[in-house]
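User: Watch each token:
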Amino acid sequence: MNILGISSRIKHPKYGLGVVTNVTSKHYWVTFIENGLETIAIDSDFEIIDAVEDEVDSVSFYEVETILKNMLKKWSDVSEIVPMADKWKGGKLVLEPGDTNLKGKEIPIDGFFHKIVMVRDRIRVMEQKINSSNLDDQDKVDLQQYITRMYGSLTTFNVLFKNKSQQFVGSRSK
């Protein structure tokens, strides 16, 4: 049995005419004209209208998209979507000065959280730029220690994050 390549055209008894848009070891991802995207087993019953031979080094659109997203995440300051803990949504941060003659300030927590996430993302970008720079290893280690301390200083704000994996982590004591 030959594996169909991306752009092969098929006719499926249930879904009709379609084009193969991705291939995995067990499935074809096929975009059908009348039924949209469906995943079908490679050994499914269908008629091959136009077979495109699969090349060993071919890359699917999904793989290209995933690689591109990872590169952008790593090398740019485009931030990922970071959800705030549900209990804070719609809340406000209230700053009250010690001097009662002065006016306080209220800030929507959503906006404050967004700024905290931007700071975190920019520190990550700085860390990546340091690690890929031409600095000698000792300078990189020294700068990395400062970054770790910065993360540690920001752990106070971890209470705002919904996902623990997206929180700040500083140096851990043993």
